Amino acid sequence: MMQKHREDMADTSSVLKPKLNTFDTSMIVVSLVIGIGIFRTPALVATHAGTVVLFFAAWVMGGIISLMGALTFAEIGSRYPQPGAFYGVVAEHYHPSVAFMLNYTNVTLVNGVGGAAVAMIGAEYLVSVLLPPEIRTAHATRFAAAYLTLFLLGINYLGIKTGAWAQNILTVVKIIMVVLLIGAALVKGSAGASPAPAVSPDASFLLALGIALISVFYTYGGYQQTINFGADVQSPSRNMPRAIFIGIAIIVALYLLINGSYVYVLGIHGVAVSDLVAGELARRSLGNAGQTLISIAIFLSAMGFLNVTLMQIPRAYYAMAADGTIPRRFMKVNPKTQSQEFTLLFFGGIILLSIFLLGTFERLMNYVMLFDSINIAVVASTVFVLRTRRIGETAHIYKAPLYPVLPAVFILMLLAVTVNVIISQPGSAWVGLLFLAGGYPLFWILRRFNAPAGV
Q: What distance in Å separates the CA atoms of residue 334 and residue 157, rounded to the nearest whole number?
């Protein structure tokens, strides 16, 4: 079974041709992380932190741990440059059933429904700018989200490089708009610190920090999926580590700066009580023009995240098909455009369907996302196997510094976040655990029907 998987993944060299350079991949990293979370989750972090010191301690700690994760995944991506590596590295070096259990909800439910949710949010902000108030209905938002999804599907159908060009434009413009918002806040904003605490004073420091870190880690998350582009990146052993490090460095800098702007203008209590903290910051700093600016910024962030999801999830389907858990048709690649046309349309169909059935799936999506930290921790742990077995050992291989301490600390922090989720949301955790366990029998059912001959 393992031998067949290695042969199928090795065959990708004759099918998938690398077209992404370091800049393309760095912009992918940024958009995988900076979606809409940074415009909303600081309110949750402030609510649990309660003080300025604890608020920034959570964001700084999250940034440090994310840098550790970036260095860990840079080595994994350098040693294992395969399509859908987030799935494949676990399937090959642990067991396909483990990889499937951790990923089967991600490639359909989480990313499909998650993509629909992000498309809806982006459409909502676009509609608020373009349409008069009397026709800003739920139906208008749904159809706008569907049209935007179809537009991005068309771009990615044209090829991986076309999708990357769109991604570069969306990401660069998004970064510029965030920097403009930060600049306006620092120039025109005024300190609005409030003595009112955001949480009860008897909450312990460690408990408050641990719960605040849940939202912080989810806001920093996503860069790990960059390794799904292993077969698409030029000179991956060299360029993948560079792109992950450059991307996460940009993200940490932007996050610390924009959170500093939130606190400077609104105060810690003002951040905690703002449903859309970025919108309130823009209104205070730029007035009505600020509302338009933040609406466009959130729209671009949503579209950038949706576009990069359409780019990377088909590669995860590729790895699962090569492993015999889904039909091999999901491996079919257009040799000219490098687009997985059938897979892209299939995944796009899930997003479009979810746009009109979103209310049914939102709670389910929240449950399964609780195990994202477990998934990341398991994939990160493969660095020990890759290093021990000297997988991909070449002159240009990237090695994470301070090994094995650095990846070990990163994994322990992820598991600590998982424990905090279980403690703070035990009901949702048990539901998520049932989904995780359900992947095991489903794996063997699908393997029985889809495994190629000889497996």
A: 10
Binning pLDDT at 50, 70 and 90, where does residue 428 land?
A: low
Q: Are 256 and 63 in contact (CB under 8 A)?
A: yes
What is the predicted pLDDT for the residue at 438?
Answer: 86
Helix pair 96-103, 288-322: axis angle to 10 deg: 150
Residue 190, pLDDT > 70, answer no
CA 160 to chain centre: 19
Q: Is 262 exposed, middle or buried (0-12, 13-18, 19+ CB in 10 A)?
A: buried
Asked if pLDDT for residue 388 goes beyond 70, the answer is yes
Residue 342 region, left (φ>0) first, then alpha (ψ -120 to 50), else beta?
Answer: alpha
Mind listing the pLDDT tens digit for each residue in 306-352? Answer: 999 999 889 889 988 888 888 889 989 998 888 999 999 999 998 99
Q: Any idea where the domains of the chain sit in the sequence? A: 2-13+23-450
- Percent of the chain clearing pLDDT 90 (strictly above): 28
DSSP string covering 105-139: TIIIIIHHHHHHHHHHHHHHHHHHHHS-GGG--HH
Q: E strands within 224-331?
A: none
The CATH class that applies to domain 2-13+23-450 reads: mainly alpha
Is the separation of the CB atoms in 120 and 146 below 8 Å?
A: no
Pair of tokens at residue 312: 């990377």
Residue 26, C-beta contacts closer than 8 angstroms, at least 6 positions apart: 242, 243, 246, 247, 250
CB 105 within 8 A of CB 443: no
Q: Lowest-pLDDT range, 45-49, 144-148, 260-264, 344-348?
A: 45-49
CB atoms within 10 A of CB 428: 17
Task: Give the list of residues 6+ apart from residue 441 with CB closer than 8 angstroms, or none.
Answer: none
Other beta carbons within 10 Å of 169: 14
pLDDT, average across residues 212-227 = 83
Q: What is the pLDDT of residue 2?
A: 47
Q: How far apart, in whole angstroms, are the C-alpha atoms of residue 274 and residue 282?
A: 12
CB 305 within 8 A of CB 148: no
| Cα–Cα distance, 224 to 222 (Å, whole number) | 5
Determine the residue type at 93.
H
Mean pLDDT of the chain: 83
pLDDT at 6 over 90: no
